[in-house]
Amino acid sequence: MELKLFFLFSLVFIITVNAQVRMVYDRNDVFDRKLYEEVLDRGECLKQMRYIVTEDPLLWARFLDAGFRMPRSLQKGNLNDLGSYYECLGINENVRDMSIEGKYCTAKIPVNRFFNLTSLPIQSELREVLWPEFNPMMFNIDDSTYNDLIKQMSIKKQLQGLIGTTPEDNNISRDDDSILGYEISIRLAVCLPKPCSLQNVLETVSNISGLQIQEDYCRLPNDKPWAAADYVALVTFTLLGILMLISTTYDIRHRIFLKKDPKLANKLYLSFSVYTNTLRLVTYTPVPGALECLDGIRAIAMLWVIIGHTYQMFVTAPTMHNPLDLLYFLRSFWSLWITAAPITVDTFFMLSGLLLIYTIAGKTTRSTLLKNLHLFYLSRYLRLFPVLAASILLQASLFYRVTDGPVWESVAQQTYQCRKYWWSTLLYIQNYYNPRFTCIPNTWYLAVDFQLFLISPIILVGVIGTTKRTAWITLTTALLASITGSSIFNFIMRFTAANFVVGSTREDRPDYFTLYYVNTLPRASPFFVGMIFGYILYLCRGKEIIMSKIQITFLWFLTIVVSSGIICSHYIVLRPDWDNWIVDALINSYMRPLWALSICWMIFACTHGYGGPINWILSHPMWKILARLSYTMYVFHYPLMFVVNGSLVTPLYFSDEFAIHKAMTDFVIAVLAAYIITLFVDAPCSVLIKHFLGGFIKQAPKKPLDNAADTSEVKNKNESA
């Protein structure tokens, strides 16, 4: 009898927890809302409840086992329990004339709220049985843990603002009940019979006072309706697969069975061949004059980006076993190589500007450039388009369907954003039009880079076909204008210099991510630094540069000091008590061009024989493949991280060792995905674009110093930057 009463009360509690279910997903429409409404049946719900509780305790035990239990490690900041998602949705029993199926839901219970059992119209002896399980103190945490949770939640919301999973950067305060009740709350998983209408069931029981419950979301089997993007993706990738099969068959027949010269094969027929495209990817012929060290710089920068995003995913993860341990790690000096990771994106901006000048200067005239300006833009757009379009289409369709999990809403949010804002990403305006809801969040970099590319002809006109004096005036003017404009903007806006703030912040602080981090003006200076050094490398190409040991030692020492100082500055500005807007403005204005300057010197030294072991490492052939895959890796690694983390069925446990292990796993997944997309999309489209569009820049008469340069090799590097 007591067991049945316990089951009955457990059902009442679960139903009460879900009393405020909102079946409409305000943030996206990627789940089938009609399905949730259609399955509701008050009579069937009461009928199934009566049977489960009174006649089939084993089945009811399955519902309980898949749902409600308290989170472990509450004092370490774990406020979530995910229950057993697949076990709940796997409940499907046909008994008598009923089909009993499970429905997975989560509910949020604010901490420091007391659960008043005395308000329930139940027998006193039952309260004694239930008290050990529903101790009101289990919803309380101490003040120190609470304050740390607020700081950790603040960091999470700031980073979620960057990746587009929260609409606004709310300030969390203990006195703000509305924010407290939603953010600092315990989230529990519950498993319910599918037809139950929670509101109707509540009408049959007394209200439970003193405990505020907010329903989070519910899931049902097959609740992902097909959308237009799914059909487009299915047709598109099926056609690509057929073309790849036909092309590879033609290639193998031509090369192996007929033993004909590969040069005699039709280039268009080979464009989708896995065999030929793989050979192109892994085959490398050394070319005198090529900037070999760029491969190592690009590959290492890409690895740093992936590691930084892996740690960021820990911070923004929907559920973690020990989030406060992560908070303490971010406060420590040893996290500096992670908190400073965003600076590596400026390396890519610098490389883009450097290679733009290096590949064009001396190889065309001003009139040719202006005459073919439309092709100049079109070739760049089409070079980036196939991989970006493939990532958008996959995120809007296959990535959403490839797996599932109790925290799949993070992936659903990304899918919704791609279905709604795909066009702004393809037009490279997402950093201004919808910066908080970007399709493929990391593509803000492509938007800024393409916008800088759009204005680059203004500088190129002053460099190509002019005197050195005019070229230097043009390049330095562009850099000074960029730095001056950025400095004025930073001093007016008074941004923090921290990517996120570990502690209290100024209440009047402007939005760092949308107004600074993804804004083209503050991010432009590394691009112009790269253009200047691209021109220097062009002038020095094929020449022997003589420098004394003192000069070389001093420049390397200065580079190490400047780059180390930039990295270490993140530790200072991330301190909870840091509040110096003048230093923040100086760091925001000059940190990025100085970092680009340091990398540029490294490239110059390695190119002209002053790199020593650094040049040997950066120029090693092991970086070639990674460098060629770097663009595709950059585009795809982030959405794949969302898929992997969204499929979690238990909270993540943070440790530095596990984070490195996970980063390496993310890196391997990114490499494999980049290889597949390169074979399916990037390599074939490159061949087709080159065939139909052709080169728009006519080769100028070669001077002696041009003979050592390999234009195609450098251009390939520029395209993947």
TrEMBL record:
The chain crosses the membrane at residues 231-250, 296-314, 334-360, 381-400, 444-464, 471-493, 513-540, 552-574, 594-619, 631-655, 667-689. Residues 42-220 form the Nose resistant-to-fluoxetine protein N-terminal domain. Keywords: Membrane, Signal, Transmembrane, Transmembrane helix. Residues 1-19 form the signal peptide. The keyword Signal applies. InterPro entries: Acyl_transf_3_dom, Nose-resist-to-fluoxetine_N, O2_lipid_transport_reg. Coiled coil: none annotated. SMART domains: NRF (SM00703). It comes from the Eukaryota. PANTHER family: O-ACYLTRANSFERASE (PTHR11161), O-ACYLTRANSFERASE LIKE PROTEIN (PTHR11161:SF0). This is O-acyltransferase like protein-like. It comes from Galleria mellonella (Greater wax moth). The lineage of its organism: Eukaryota, Metazoa, Ecdysozoa, Arthropoda, Hexapoda.
